[in-house]
Design brief:
By secondary structure, this protein is of the alpha/beta class.
């Protein structure tokens, strides 16, 4: 099925710009901190973030149980109250589990779902096609593919994305391959049918938009939401001089937030803003002391402290 023009325009309006891969705040005993979650949603509404991704991989989806996962999505939607789109992370390396999480997100009122490529089991390209086709056919919610081979050991190649673009409710892809030539190829090949082609790498988001991408699903936006929103808005308006200028102040922060495995540095940084506590679930551990100064310096340069 090929979507109508109206659906294309709606997708472009709703899912573009700076979309934050939101951290999941936790109390000192490791429980989800729903009061802090509500504060985070307000923080992003006030600072111009264009959409929230709830319980993506930055939101520690790997360590939340299914009940917590759905509860965080539900509370995020309730806090957003229609003021900002909420995209639920519902990917899994089990097709049946991904369908279950996607169906629950749809029932809870999410605006779309983000589906990471299956990790660890390393499916074939045909397996990837059939996996995402099965989810799209099972649940009518708009769906955004997520390709991040550095974390999943699974790279979904452009020909498969091109096939999936023909499925009506697959509206986009978060490309974290870090390959700008691939971004150009995806835009040229798929954007007429799959309009939400966005970066999954803060460091190349400005360049990705130069190549025709529509924005970024961002880790940095947790810490510098206004700057990321302004940078994306400038790029989408064709003002790449301004976008580059803003992005230059963020480059150290982009890098610092990956000094240790995501979301270790970003949770520490958001804690420094006074928005959340410092708890992170095992097997991840708090940011090593010797990186504190580097992350703080990058935050200062970005103007967020």
């Amino acid at each position: 099925m090929v979507r109508s023009d109206n659906k294309e325009f709606k997708a472009i309006r709703m899912f573009q710009g700076s979309m934050v891969a939101l951290v999941t705040p936790m109390t000192d005993d490791g429980a989800v901190d729903y009061e802090a979650l509500a504060r985070l949603v307000e923080f992003h509404v006030e600072n111009g973030t264009n959409a929230i991704i709830s319980v993506g991989t930055t939101g520690e989806s790997a360590t939340l149980d299914p009940e917590e996962h759905c509860a965080v999505v539900e509370r995020t939607i309730a806090s957003a109250s229609g003021r900002i789109p909420v995209i639920a992370g519902t990917g899994a390396n089990s097709t049946a589990e991904a369908i279950h999480l996607t169906r629950r997100a749809h029932e809870l009122g999410a605006d779309a779902c983000l589906l990471v490529t299956p990790y660890y089991n390393k499916p074939t390209q045909e397996g990837l096609y059939l996996h995402f086709k099965a989810i799209a056919n099972a649940v009518p919610i708009p769906q955004i593919l997520y390709n991040v081979p550095s974390r999943t050991a699974c790279d979904m190649l452009t020909p498969v994305v091109n096939r999936l673009a023909d499925i009506d409710n697959i509206i986009g892809i978060k490309d974290a391959s870090a390959e700008i030539n691939r971004a150009k190829e995806l835009v040229e090949m798929c954007a007429d049918r799959m309009p939400v082609v966005v970066s999954g790498e803060d460091g190349n988001a400005e360049e990705h938009m130069r190549a025709g991408g529509r924005g970024v699903i961002s880790v940095t936006a947790n810490v510098a939401p206004r700057q990321m929103s302004d940078m994306c808005a400038a790029a989408l308006n064709g003002d790449f001089k301004r976008a580059k200028k803003i992005n230059k102040t963020l480059q150290d922060l982009h890098a610092a937030l990956f000094l240790e495995s995501n979301p270790i540095p970003v949770k520490w940084a958001v804690q420094q803003l006074g928005l959340i506590g410092g708890y992170i679930r095992l097997p991840l551990t708090p940011l090593s002391d010797h990186f504190h100064g580097q992350v703080r310096a990058a935050m200062n340069k970005a103007g967020v402290l």
